[in-house]
Design goal:
38% of the residues lie in helices and 15% in strands. The protein has 476 residues and is of the alpha/beta class. Among the domains are: 4-81; 100-326 and 364-375, Alpha-Beta Barrel (TIM Barrel), CATH 3.20.20.70. A ten-stranded mixed β-sheet has the order 11-10-9-8-7-6-12-13-14-15. Strands 2-3-4 form a three-stranded antiparallel β-sheet. It has a two-stranded antiparallel sheet with strand order 1-5. Helix 6 (203-211) links the parallel strand 8 and strand 9. It is globular, with a radius of gyration of 24 Å.
């Protein structure tokens, strides 16, 4: 006799309502009183359909209502039959269409940030004997590959990266012009973005960014004291005084789309709220995102468990601010939570932590193809070359080993739909293996996901119209 048992879910509440975060589907379910009673009945043991109806049937609930409830909960996988076959995350098709090409237009930089994953103590890239600056022909080849391998996608994305991107501004300009030409020829839409340390922003460059509506992310670690702790020129001079006026000019002039700041948190730079205040209220950034430094645990700037706990506390406090703004239909620039809420709203359940090596590739100055911009010029993430195309064997090996089904440590974690084991580059730096789950972040990810779920629940209960703004946003 088949019996029903509780499925895999995480319970949370918001706005005086109870919710279930359904694993592995990534859905959110709001149980009514009957559903709660049924789930409570199955807390300790499994029961057959007839036993459930017999034990819960009363003047309040008819047999028909109970049958409907069982079917609804089973359909949502909040309860499961012991004969059910577990749904696994979708396996990847043989050729997944490209959506994004990250052009590392140079592997050179005019700053010397000691924590830099590309040039710092934990670098995995080796560009010896390779060109330092991407040539126009290489950029065109990369754009051709993107359009050819995007198949039936209606839009594609080109992002420019470095090193310091603006050291090769001429190629950026040429690539934008060429990509627009290819878009017109193929009937597709092309969007552009770039990351910069802002040291080389000029009136001419800002005018170009505005004219072409290029999204910009600025790497900056907050006010002068925080930023200049690590973000220094090669002679050791801090960069804040150089970049601050340039950033203000960029923010004043480039109004076509949000300009974001990207902050690297280290053991010495963890004052999240003060950094956020400075970058939004004093500098004027629309969005600010934070990421703990990617590094070996032995580095002095590596963040220990206590530091991660402190960051989570501050993230939670900013999340409460975000909630207050959302309930008033106001913008709040904490992109870490808006990005996660977007995924929760779309019911994302990831087979992979990101699109690296899947819908996204990184292109080195010499034309090597890497899993993403963090793996260019590295043998670890090499999946081809522009002259020969994507190495499907190497790509398949990566996608097989990186699939959540093969990350057995993740299979009992309720937060896996939004994490899927974490960043490949972080895994390689920590464990020497891109396919390893980032177990040192597990408690942090569960804690942060729970915060985001509670905020989502509050918004869903108290101002559900606010969630509509996530419906048209792209989920990477």
């Amino acid at each position: 006799m088949s019996v029903y048992r509780r499925g895999e879910f995480h319970e949370f509440s918001g706005g005086d309502k109870s919710y279930l975060y359904l694993v592995p589907s990534g859905g959110i379910f709001a149980p009514d009183d009957l559903s709660k009673s049924l789930l409570k009945l199955l807390e300790t043991d499994g029961l057959s359909r007839a036993e459930i109806v017999t034990q819960l049937r009363s003047d309040k609930y008819s047999a028909f209502e109970l049958e409907e409830c069982i079917d609804e909960l089973h359909g949502a996988q909040a309860i499961v039959l012991d004969t059910d076959v577990t749904d696994l995350p979708t396996q990847i098709p043989e050729q997944f269409p490209l959506q994004t090409a990250v052009l590392n237009v140079t592997n050179q930089c005019n700053l010397s940030c000691s924590y830099c994953y590309e040039y710092g103590e934990d670098r995995i890239a080796s560009s010896e004997g390779k060109t330092k600056f991407m040539e126009e022909e290489t950029a065109r080849q990369a754009i051709d590959l993107l359009f050819e391998q995007s198949h039936d996608r209606r839009s594609v994305h080109v992002t420019f990266f470095g090193g310091e991107t603006l050291l090769n501004f001429e190629v950026v300009k040429s690539a934008v012009e060429y990509a627009r030409k290819r878009a017109a020829e193929t009937g597709k839409y092309v969007d552009f973005s770039m990351t910069t340390n802002a040291t080389m922003l000029t009136e001419e460059i800002i005018e170009f960014l505005v004219k072409n509506n290029i999204g910009v992310t600025v790497s900056i670690d907050g006010p002068k004291e925080s930023n200049d702790r690590f973000r220094v020129f090669q002679g050791g001079k801090g960069s804040y005084d150089v970049i601050a006026p340039k950033i203000r000019e960029l923010l004043k002039t480039h109004r076509g789309r949000p300009i974001g700041a990207r902050v690297t948190l280290t053991a010495q730079v963890v004052n999240v709220k003060a950094i956020f205040r400075h970058l939004t209220e004093e500098m004027g950034f629309t969005e600010v995102g934070f990421a703990p430094v990617t590094t070996s645990p032995v580095r002095l700037y590596a963040i220990g468990s206590n530091g991660l706990d402190d960051i989570l506390t501050q993230f939670a406090e900013l999340a409460e601010e975000y909630l207050a703004h959302a309930l008033r239909n106001e913008h709040h620039g904490f992109s870490n939570i808006s990005d996660t809420l977007q995924e929760l709203h779309h019911g994302v359940s990831k087979a992979y932590p990101c699109g690296a090596g899947l819908g996204l590739i990184g292109v080195s100055p010499s034309g090597d193809l890497g899993l993403c911009h963090r793996f260019v010029d590295s043998e670890a993430g090499l999946i081809g070359h522009l002259n020969t195309g994507i190495d499907r064997t190497a790509q398949r090996a990566h996608l097989t080993s990186g699939h959540i089904n093969n990350k057995y440590d993740c299979h009992t974690c309720w937060a896996r739909p939004v994490c899927s084991g974490g960043c490949y580059h972080e895994a390689f730096v920590r464990y020497g293996d891109t396919s390893r789950p980032n177990l040192h972040y597990c408690d942090w990810i569960r804690g942060w996901t729970d915060v985001c779920l509670r905020v989502y629940g509050e918004i869903a209960a108290r101002n559900p119209d606010y969630l509509k703004r996530f419906e048209d946003r792209k989920v990477a």
